[in-house]
Specification:
CATH superfamily of one domain in chain B: Cytochrome c oxidase, subunit III, four-helix bundle
CATH class of one domain in chain B: Mainly Alpha
Largest sheet of chain B: none
Order of helices and strands of chain A: HHHHHHEEHHHHHHHHH
Shape of chain A: globular
Radius of gyration of chain A: 24 Å
Strand content of chain A: under 5%
Helix content of chain A: 55-70%
Radius of gyration of chain B: 22 Å
Helix content of chain B: over 70%
Number of strands of chain B: 0
CATH architecture of one domain in chain B: Up-down Bundle
CATH class of one domain in chain A: Mainly Alpha
CATH architecture of one domain in chain A: Up-down Bundle
Number of helices of chain B: 6
Distance between the termini of chain B: 69 Å
Structural class of chain A: mainly alpha
Order of helices and strands of chain B: HHHHHH
CATH topology of one domain in chain A: Cytochrome C Oxidase, Chain A
CATH superfamily of one domain in chain A: Cytochrome c oxidase-like, subunit I domain
Number of strands of chain A: 2
Strand content of chain B: under 5%
CATH topology of one domain in chain B: Four Helix Bundle (Hemerythrin (Met), subunit A)
Oligomer: heterodimer
Number of helices of chain A: 15
Chain lengths: 582, 223
């Protein structure tokens, strides 16, 4: 069944003042840009922090950073990248921009709540950044914030930093929930004529399922955050066991640190897929458009997204194999973890089969998409090692783990972010990003990240532990490891600086980029069919689009061109048979 | 022209208001799902934590929750609010003639009474030395009842919107304001029922005996 609004009764309060239009905006496109710019800005802070850490590891003592500063940088880098950059960018940025356009809506269904979502997000970022300036600095507990050490004296930032971190997370979760209600409801209730669930582009499916995961998983972080905050501030003992601190008996009794770990990872593992599923969706669309091929196995792709989403809730304890658990639990969680490989591999095969005999255009978005497939595959394969208890235990807390998760949920999603920005930038601004700078940015980033993270697997095998400030005088670490670390640092600095190319490209092309027209990639989905580019307030002008087919009709023999937009009627080009039974 | 957009209706279009109403209901259901996830995780944490030896259950015969009279009064108040909303909702198609306004006020006041009642019980606990920091059972009691109270305070804003919209209907009874008032009442009713169910679950759990916790813990494999 298709849903549509009664256009003549829709009130489109076009904002007139500057503030209403660009600051207190309720337009999903402006909110998306606000979300994205904030996320990228805070992401750059996290990038600088990683550069500082690499300097300390590669060239110890070369910068003015003590062990306290190192732990603080490490913690803030991890938390910012996972939550405040990737989650916010995929859901708040891409979700906000693309969902209403792709489903054919004028805006999100609750524009005011959507606006609040952004402002709460901004406040959460400001509270987080404020922790750099409080006495003791930000928390250095590691991004997992495990108690009891996170709130015990001796850990950096255990006085104020940890409080601000927890408060910031709680505000972020409220923001994400307000945004999430919007994304899911818009997909369910605001689709235009003819836009059935099985005609939605996979981008929408990815963000839709990821948002449902966020709505159900973020409460676990909320619950653990609140309880830890109370342990810290009013002296409860939810997580804090009976313990000594610098020879003094603390007032806490009987709390369970393992309970925190369960709660944290009940959020933490779905979080991986809150980041990965939108990336899966976006990359499916990029591959299909730039290979001029229908996506292979559309329905299979949808069900794989759903299956991955469901399974992501029953694997969390694979992050806790070394925390001590009943061996049967370990067996259960190893099995569920390996089962996730099935729908995930299915998606990889389908991307490859979409490319197979496609008319592959090596545009910048396509280069990033291909790089994503390879990187995700490499990161996923090391996940199979770590998912097994007996392999995980010796590799736990080594650089092998660092390499694994950076590949699979750091580099891979970021490659999609870049590809997607190169792909949709023309719709957002009306101008193309510079192709040459884009390709340079791609090759430095792609090759650079491999030079950074591939060697880390070997360091992990050597037993080099993660989260160490210095590695001198460990007999099991050979001197050559230090050479490798110096090499990684040099490459990391180059890759980090090369990201300025991207920032430069974004700004340069805004003014000097080649005008793109409405549909530069000759794509089918609705966002390319708006009457104006960039789309105006209300997106569709007078009349709403009517959808007659899925978004992946490329190379249809009966069609005049090699693409058939979703609004093309079945009378002009026959609708694909499997699409008729909707 | 292939890329032309048309506006020929394929299915009977829903009115703007129908869509808005359906969206609001879907949004509320999603919100309740997220809140349920939160309470479920709190309750599991509660059960797990209750199995550590320092836990002094508030429901032991010599502890405050052995006497649940005050909490039963509070429960009755929340039940009255829920019933009042339900009656207002059932009356919804002819609320101009009915006593919707009175029912709404009854719901609001008894919800307010519930909140006061909870605070009175908090006062009783702190007066008798049952502080959040003195035992995890106390901490959970304050935390869970406090969060439930905050959710009800959030609901009170929705109640204010509903009351305001009903007043607007009294001033100009056009279709639009009638529809908005109805929607508000429907949403509030659903949310109040939800909060009542959550409260009854919390009440049942908080006042259960340590043996019950042990049994649940064993059932969940954490005993």
């Amino acid at each position: 069944m298709a849903y549509v609004e009664d256009v003549e009764h829709q009130e489109l309060h076009e904002p007139t003042s500057f503030y209403a239009k660009y600051v207190w905006s309720q337009d999903h496109k402006v909110i998306a840009i606000q979300y994205s710019l904030t996320a990228i800005a805070v992401g750059l802070v996290a990038l600088v922090l990683s550069g500082m850490m690499r300097m300390q590891i590669g060239f110890p003592g070369s910068i003015d950073m003590d062990s306290t500063g190192y732990y603080q940088a490490m913690t803030m880098h991890g938390m910012i990248m996972v939550i405040y950059l990737l989650t916010a960018l995929f859901l708040g940025g891409f979700g906000n921009y693309l969902i209403p356009l792709m489903v054919g809506a004028r805006d999100m269904v609750f524009p005011f709540v959507n606006m609040l979502s952004y402002w709460f997000y901004l406040v959460s970022v400001l509270v987080l950044i404020a922790s750099f300036f409080v006495p003791g600095g930000p928390t250095g507990a590691g991004w997992t914030l495990y108690p009891p050490q996170a709130i015990t004296a001796g850990t950096p930032g255990s006085e104020w930093g940890i409080i601000l971190m927890l408060v910031s997370l709680i505000i972020f979760i409220i923001a994400a929930t307000m945004g999430g209600l919007n994304y899911v409801t818009t997909v369910l209730q605001a689709r235009t004529h003819g836009m059935t669930m099985f005609r939605l582009p996979l981008t929408v499916w990815g963000i839709f399922v990821a948002t449902i995961l966020a709505l159900l998983a973020f409460p676990a972080l909320f619950v653990s955050g609140i309880m830890m905050l109370l342990d810290k501030t009013i002296g409860t003992s939810f997580f804090m066991p009976e313990m000594m601190q610098f020879g003094t008996q603390l007032d806490h009794t009987g709390g369970s640190p393992i309970l925190f770990q369960h709660l944290f990872w009940f959020f933490g593992h779905p979080e991986v897929y809150i980041v990965a599923l939108p990336a899966f969706g976006l990359v499916s669309d990029l591959i299909s458009v730039h290979a001029r091929r229908s996506i292979f196995g559309y329905r299979m792709m949808v069900w794989a997204i759903v299956a991955i989403g469901v399974l992501s809730f029953v694997v969390w304890a694979h992050h806790m194999y070394v925390s001590g658990m009943n061996p049967y639990f370990g067996f259960f969680f190893a099995t569920t973890t390996l089962v996730i490989a099935v729908p995930t591999a299915l998606k990889v095969y389908n991307w490859l089969l979409t490319l197979w005999r496609g008319n592959i255009h090596l545009t910048v978005p396509m280069l990033f998409s291909l790089a994503f497939i390879v990187t995700f595959l490499v990161g996923g394969l090391t996940g199979l090692f770590l998912g097994n208890v007996v392999v995980d235990i010796p590799l736990s807390d080594t650089y092998f783990v660092v390499a694994h998760f950076h590949m699979v949920m750091g580099v891979a999603p970021i490659l999609v972010v870049f590809g997607a920005i190169y792909h949709w930038y023309p719709k957002i601004t009306g101008r193309m990003l510079h192709d040459g700078i884009g390709k340079l940015h791609f090759w430095i980033t792609f090759l650079g990240t491999y030079l950074i993270y591939f060697p880390m697997h070997y360091l992990g095998f050597l037993g080099m532990p993660r989260r160490y400030y210095a590695y001198e005088d460990y007999q099991f670490i050979p001197d050559s490891a230090q050479s490798l670390n110096a090499f990684i640092t040099v490459v990391a600095i180059v890759v980090a600086i090369s990201q300025l190319l991207f920032i430069f490209n974004l700004i340069y092309s805004l003014f000097r980029g080649k005008p793109s027209g409405g549909n530069p990639w000759r794509a089918n989905s609705l966002e390319w069919l708006t009457p104006d580019t960039p789309p105006k307030h209300g997106n569709w002008g007078e009349s709403m689009p009517v959808v007659h087919r899925w978004a992946y009709d490329y190379g249809v023999p009966e069609a005049e061109l090699d693409f058939v937009p979703q609004t093309t009627s079945g009378d002009v080009v026959p609708v694909h048979e499997s699409d008729l039974d909707e | 022209m292939l890329a032309q957009t048309t506006s020929i209706p394929i299915t009977a279009p829903r009115s703007y208001f129908q869509r808005r109403s359906a969206s609001a209901k879907t949004g509320l259901h999603l919100l309740m799902a997220a809140i349920s996830s939160m309470y479920l995780l709190f309750l599991l944490s509660y059960i797990l934590r209750s199995q550590v030896s320092d836990w002094e259950a508030l429901s032991e015969p010599w502890q405050p929750l052995a006497q649940t009279g005050q909490l039963w009064i509070n429960t009755a108040l929340l039940l009255v609010a829920s019933i009042a909303f339900e009656m207002a909702r059932r009356n919804i198609d002819r609320f101009e003639q009915g006593n919707t306004r009175e029912l709404l006020w009854l719901a609001g006041l008894s919800s307010f009474g519930f909140l006061i009642g909870q605070l009175v019980f908090w006062q009783y606990l702190t007066d008798h030395g049952y502080l959040a920091s003195s035992n995890p059972a106390n901490a959970f009691f304050f935390l869970l009842t406090g969060l439930h109270g905050l959710h009800l305070v959030g609901g009170m804003f929705a109640w204010m919107v509903a009351t305001y919209r009903l007043r607007v209907v009294g001033q100009n009874g056009d279709n639009r304001s009638v529809s908005l008032a109805k929607l508000s009442i429907e949403l509030c009713t659903t949310y109040w029922h939800f909060l009542l169910v959550i409260w009854m679950l919390l009440f049942a759990l908080l006042s259960s005996s340590p043996g019950t916790y042990a049994a649940i813990a064993k059932f969940c494999g954490i005993g």
